[in-house]
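In response to a reviewer's request, we include the raw inputs and outputs for one of the modeled complexes. The four entities were modeled together in a single run.
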Amino acid sequence: MELDHFDRKILDAVQRNNRLTTEELGELVGLSATACQRRLKKLRDAGVIEADVAIVSPEAVGRPMLMLVSISLERDRSNIIDRFKQAIRKTPEIMSAFYVTGEADFVLLICVRDMVEYEAFTRRFFYENPDIKGFSTMVVMDRTKVSFAVRIDK
Amino acid sequence: MELDHFDRKILDAVQRNNRLTTEELGELVGLSATACQRRLKKLRDAGVIEADVAIVSPEAVGRPMLMLVSISLERDRSNIIDRFKQAIRKTPEIMSAFYVTGEADFVLLICVRDMVEYEAFTRRFFYENPDIKGFSTMVVMDRTKVSFAVRIDK
DNA sequence: CCTGAAACAGCCTCCGC
DNA sequence: GCGGAGGCTGTTTCAGG
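The model returned the following C-alpha cells for the whole complex.
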C-alpha cells in the first residue's frame, strides 16, 4: 500500500495515542474528520496498522520484573526453530520474542512476578525444550522507551 | 490500585484489542457495558493502562529491518547512565531500550530502512556517546510475539 | 480523493437499586 | 459497587465538487 504524507502523519499520531477522535486527528494532520476516518479504516484493513492495543503496566498487575533472555540452540535446523517458535507462542510469561542472527539465536522478553516465578519458568521452559544449548539472563532495571513506535518519515 | 477478577479480564481483553465496544467487553467479562466503561476509565486514570496505541507495521512504513543491539558502557557511573538515557530518548531509530544487568548494560531495539541507515545510525550514535565501550548487533529475522502483552492472572 | 450534512452507533451521566 | 434510560459525542454513509 502506498502511503502519502497524510497517512504518515496519521500513523505517527495514532501509534502514540489511538483514542484521539477523528476530529482531533483531522486538526493534527490538516484534514477533515471524515477523511481521516476513511484513511484510518484503510490503514487498518491493509494491515499497515497491525493492531490496536492498551499498554498495561506490568507493575500494576503484579508482574514488575522484566528479563531479557538470550538463548542459543543446539542446532539451527529449521524444524528445531519452528518447534521452538511454537513453544514461545504457548508460553504466557513471554511478552516478545525475536529470532536473531549473531551472538544468540533467540532473544526473549519475559515478564514475571518475582525470581521464584522466573526460576519456575526457566526450569519448565528449558526442560520442555531440550534443544536449548545455553542461555543468559539480563534483568531489566529500567525501560527507557516503552512501546513499539516506529520512526515515520513525514 | 486493587484489581479484582473483572478488572483483570478487562485488561486481558483490551491489551489485545482496545477497540472493542463497551458492549462487547461486557459480554466478554460478564458485566454490563456501563460497568466496563466505568472500570476502564478508572484503570486509565490510575495508570494501570499506561497508553492506548496503534501498532504500526514497520515493513509497511518502509522500515523493515529490526536490530537488537547490546551495549556495554565504559563505566557504570550514574551520570553516564543518565546521559545515555537522554540520548536514547532523542534518537528516533530506537523503538525500545532496556537498562539491564548481566552481559550488557543496555539493550536497544532499532528499526531501520536498510543497512545503510543502520550504519549511519551506529556511526552517529556511537560518535555522540563516547562512553560506549562496545556493542554487538543481532539482526532480527523474525518476531514471534509482537506486542507488550503482560500475563494477567484471572 | 476531498468536504459537509444527516443518520446512526456507541459512550457517558444520572439515578434507582 | 451494579444496571438501565436517555442525552450527547463521535463515527459512518451519502451527496456533491
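As requested, we also summarize the result in words. The longest helix of chain A spans residues 115-128. Chain A has a mean pLDDT of 95.
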